[in-house]
Amino acid sequence: MAFANAQYLDAINRNLQDVEGKVNVSFEFFPPKTPQMEQTLWQSIERLAPLAPSFVSVTYGANSGERDRTHDIIKSIKQRTGLIAAPHLTCVDASKEALIDIARDYWQNGIRHIVALRGDLPPGSIAKPDLYAADLVEILRSVADFDISVAAYPEVHPEAPNAQFDLLNLKRKVEAGASRAITQFFFDTEKFLRYRDRCAAIGIDVDIVPGILPVTNFQQLKKFAALTNVAVPTWMHKAYEGLDNDVTTRNLVAANIAMEMVKVLSREGVDHFHFYTLNRSELSYAICHLLGVRPQTAV
């Protein structure tokens, strides 16, 4: 038994050595709605900033209040940490003229990276949007030389009629000037790898960055997944079974699953991972630490 355990630990060490020093990361946050949530957000940003992420992004709501909060947080992150801060920007609820004004304001404030999205349609809406993400990329490119990230969907966007349509839509965004694509969260690494191959096959030549979600609340995840067309594997249901009231074990399970995904994808040549933090730093920091992404000032 001792020999078997030694072999197991040796395998873990080899896996970690395979990825150590080869991983780039970025983190996503959302605008806080209360003073307490804002405190938690800044604690998380300050905890993760020493890891020198490629960028940090902040999500965006569909009304002016949410937009203003995103803008304020983005500017504060840049001023307080020096990190590259990337606001999400949606076009479903804005005119071309308004988007140009927003883009100019970001550029004038030193914001060079934007995550360009169509955005969610209003509840119950069946009207065809005036603008899509590819149009937004074109608008941003017409304003300035932004670094532009767009969304990708390994398991197909919920509104897309089929996978090929969805893939061609991504290609339109890239041809319009997108710099990279960040995927919706997923849990089946094979699906991501097949998707990456399909992207390459039709000439999509930008990085496809996997979105990693460490799952601390499995019940909430099931609701998210149903809305976003993300499959939750049977093994995950079993892994979280009986843990509704056991936060500590849920966190350990979440970290292990995310780490295994990153190790598998790293061995397949993926070198950038985007973590959906949900404004919490603990799991993302721990995962990065074990993958060799550590404060650059550390000895």
TrEMBL record:
It catalyses: (6S)-5-methyl-5,6,7,8-tetrahydrofolate + NAD(+) = (6R)-5,10-methylene-5,6,7,8-tetrahydrofolate + NADH + H(+). Pfam families: MTHFR. One of its GO terms (biological process) is tetrahydrofolate interconversion. The keyword Ligase does not apply. GO terms for molecular function: FAD binding; methylenetetrahydrofolate reductase (NADH) activity. Keywords: Amino-acid biosynthesis, FAD, Flavoprotein, Methionine biosynthesis, NAD, Oxidoreductase. One of its GO terms (cellular component) is cytosol. Its EC number is 1.5.1.54. Pathway: Amino-acid biosynthesis; L-methionine biosynthesis via de novo pathway; One-carbon metabolism; tetrahydrofolate interconversion. Its cofactor is FAD. Belongs to the methylenetetrahydrofolate reductase family. This is Methylenetetrahydrofolate reductase.
